[in-house]
Write a structure and sequence with these properties.
The complex is a heterodimer of chains A (151) and B (170). With 151 residues, chain A is mainly α. Chain A contains five helices and no strands. In chain B, helix 2 packs across helix 4 and helix 5 runs antiparallel to helix 7. The chains are: A mainly alpha (151), B mainly alpha (170).
Amino acid sequence: MNSGRCAACKHLRRRCLSDCIFSPYFPPNNPRRFAYVHKIYGASNVGKILKDLPVSRRAEAADSLYYEAYCRIKDPVYGCVGLITILHQQIYNAQWQLDRIQAEIAALSTTTDHRSQSEVQQVENVGSSFLPDQNGVHDSNSFYDISNWFD
Amino acid sequence: MGGGSSPCASCKLLRRRCAKDCIFAPYFPPDDPHKFAIVHKVFGASNVSKMLQELPVHQRGDAVSSLVYEANARMRDPVYGCVGAISYLQNQVSQLQMQLAVAQAEILCIQMQQEQPPAAMVGLPPPPQDEKSSLLLATNNFNSLQQCLGFASTSTSVMQDPLKRESLWT
């Protein structure tokens, strides 16, 4: 028995050749990884998928196949499509909340602008009351006590 | 083929007799051969049959739909399949959550500004006794918004390796 077999060849009970397509991506210390992939896709299909890819992309492909197989075993009805549905819903909810808050900000900003404008107008009115009239006389009745602003 | 009824897409592709209790027939009608072809290519007829047999009948339709979706995704993107879409969507969720946090901080700042005394709003020289408190309040508002904006602008991109399993496994 070749004790250096990859997880795939161990699972399939066959000799692990030096050019085994699975061995770089299914190490013997993680038998579950190949078991899941084999259960969902089958060794033959996984081998075909990997062979059709350039060597530089095979590791990522093996990882994504493992992830999808894991999701399918956890959720036999929806697999990873269930997660996609949940993410779409989260995006919808977050966008709705964001739109609502931005509308609120716009409304509050408008209120702030109106208040600022009316306060500026008040200040101008106050300021003008300190100016003497055309005869150089201050109108004491229009004196505006600002000391209570800072209570 | 007996009885004159047309075999389902699966049995047509597999070139076998379509039995009355064929597990594929309800989900792979003969007028859509591509649907089964793609599922067979990615998963294999035998594996699909086993998966369907392990499910109650009322869930098999949904299972077939999701398998077709995954198979299509894998054909479009042989490296990442559905995982590419998941990674993209997770990134969108993160970005929206950041935008929400910024917007929420902004609305808080606006509300705090509206509660300030008018002197601070119109730029009148603050009275000596409250100068420090007005400035402190304005500074705090500015800092909290700045913190949020700083957080949003300096946070690292979430377009990480799509196979970052720690984030995808939840």
